Amino acid sequence: MSIINDDMQDLLLKYCEPEPELLKKIDRETNLKVLMPRMLSGHYQGRVLSMLSKMINPACILEIGTFTGYATLCLAEGLATNGLIYTLDINQELEDMVRHNFSQSPYNEQIKYIIGNATETVLELNEVFDLVFIDADKKNNGLYYDLIFDRVRPGGLIIVDNVLWSGKVLNTTQDKDTKNITSFNDKIASDSRVEKMILPVRDGLFVIRKN
Q: What integer pLDDT is reported at residue 4 of this predicted model?
């Protein structure tokens, strides 16, 4: 999924913060036990998410798409004292593993893990968010963006994963999934309510700042 070659990836890892031991363990177990382990953010992207979170010191984070909880814990590193992160996922089969992962973390009490369809569960949250990370079913990126936009504070960040789609967004002939990604990217590019840029991190992170 990374658009950066292995040699450059190794160099980037050499010069970034080390991966915390719990996250190393989650990475290993995800690769051993879970289908499609490539969905996990991993060391370098995880440090990017941690850094962005620490820069704004959010009191309230929303994550759409938990998977095995790796990115959740990275984002939680920047939480303000007594801050909360809500993380939404539809996969009940991973719930025990995820809750165990969270229980090993110092952020366990600050994580609200909610199982269900995110297009519905997000509507049940009565919060204003400082940071939102969208990393779920890609066809609904635009819908998630619309559902949360009015509940992100001015100056808050919305981060969307996989927006370069293994480089397929460059193709002149695109399959359905790639067209969905390109359509979402175009939607953000034309949104005058935000400042935005794509970071070529792993599979592409769209970093969007609400005006």
A: 85
**Using CA atoms, how far apart are residues 114 and 121, in angstroms rounded to an integer?**
8
How far apart, in whole angstroms, are the C-alpha atoms of residue 55 and residue 78? 7
Between CA 186 and CA 60 the distance in angstroms is: 28
Please tell me the distance from the alpha carbon of residue 40 to that of residue 120, in angstroms, as a whole number.
24
Full DSSP string of 144-173: HHHHHHTTEEEEEEEEEE-SSGGGGGG-SS
**How does DSSP classify residue 3?**
S
Query: What are the two backbone dihedrals, phi and then psi, of residue 159, each rounded to the nearest 5 degrees?
Result: -120, 130
* Helix, strand, or coil (residue 16): coil
Q: Which of 55, 42, 56 is nearest to 12 (CA)?
A: 42
How is residue 3 written in tokens? 């658009």
Report the predicted TM-score, pTM, of the whole model to 2 decimal places: 0.97
**Over the stretch 117-144, which tens digit does the pLDDT of each residue have?**
999 999 999 999 999 999 999 999 999 9
Query: For strand 84-89 and strand 129-134, is the pairing parallel, antiparallel, or unpaired?
Result: unpaired
- For 2-44, the pLDDT digits (tens) are 788 899 999 999 999 999 999 999 999 999 999 999 999 999 9
